[in-house]
Write a structure and sequence with these properties.
This protein is mainly alpha-helical and 144 residues long. It contains six helices and no strands. Helix 2 packs across helix 4.
Length: 144
């Protein structure tokens, strides 16, 4: 059950076990891990949690927040302009069969299932954003 007066970001922060101070430390560590030049202060975290809608984070802060919580910025309670939304939009009508997408997804799932687990660097949110942008460009070219 949602607490009254507590926004989505605050609920997710509390569910992850962060105080506002430990959230700032974890944010700094995640930014360093992602190689993103982004910082946040306890004061900024309070503003994000207190104001409705909260002030929009900078793009670097957006990447770190999305990586930390695993949800898009809009799902954290921010009013995100269309050019900053990270979810790939649909290319065609939902009623149509998307054969190429189906074949590509099935092939990817098969390849992942057959590939042994490897130890190494993990894929982060920034990598997924770049992949989605390139896939969107590929699909737009394919559908023209």
């Amino acid at each position: 059950m949602a607490q009254l007066g507590v926004n989505r970001l605050a609920r997710l922060r509390q569910a992850a076990g962060y105080t506002q101070a430990s959230f700032v430390a974890a944010f700094t560590a995640e930014a360093a891990r992602l190689g993103v030049r982004a910082a946040v202060s306890v004061r900024q975290a309070r503003r994000w949690e207190r104001e409705d809608p909260p002030p929009l984070p900078h793009p670097g802060q957006q990447a770190v927040l999305e990586a930390m919580f695993g949800v898009p910025l809009a799902d954290l309670g921010f009013a995100v302009p269309p050019h900053r939304v990270t979810v790939a939009g649909p290319i065609s009508h939902p009623e149509q069969v998307k054969r190429r997408t189906f074949v590509a997804d099935a092939g990817s799932l098969t390849a992942v299932a057959l590939t042994p687990a490897l130890c190494g660097p993990r894929i982060g949110a920034a990598d997924l954003v770049r992949l989605r942008a390139r896939l969107d460009g590929l699909y737009e070219t394919d559908h023209t």
